[in-house]
From TrEMBL:
The keyword Iron does not apply. It comes from Glaciihabitans tibetensis. It holds the Pfam family Glyoxalase. The keyword Lyase applies. This is Putative enzyme related to lactoylglutathione lyase. It comes from the Bacteria.
Amino acid sequence: MAAGIATIWVPVEDMDRALAFYRDTLGLDVKSTSSEWSELDANGLTIGLNARESASAASSGGAVITFQPDGTIEDELERLSARGVPIEGNISDHEWGRILPFKDTEGNDLQFYSPPQR
C-alpha cells in the first residue's frame, strides 16, 4: 500500500530550458540541479525533472500535473499567454471545478485547477 507521494518526475529533453520554465514561468523554488536530475518544490511536493537519453514522442493519455493558480485562472491564462506558453484549449467549467490546460517546454501536459465556487 502506498503511504503517500514521494516525488512526481517529469521527463525533459533540455534541463536548462525546463528548469527556466518551472522556476521562472511557474514560480517554483529550485531545490537541487544537475544535468540528469533536478528537483523543484511545489508547495511541499517535489517535482523531479528527469533528463531523457533520447527524444521520443509522448503518447496521448499520460499523466497530467495540476497546479493551483496563485490568482484566478483568467490571470494565469493571461500570464502564460504573455510568456508564449502553449495553451491546449480554453478554460473549461465543470461542476467539479475549472481547468486551464497547457504544456511545458518539453511537451508535458500541465493544467491549472480551481475548485467550484459555491
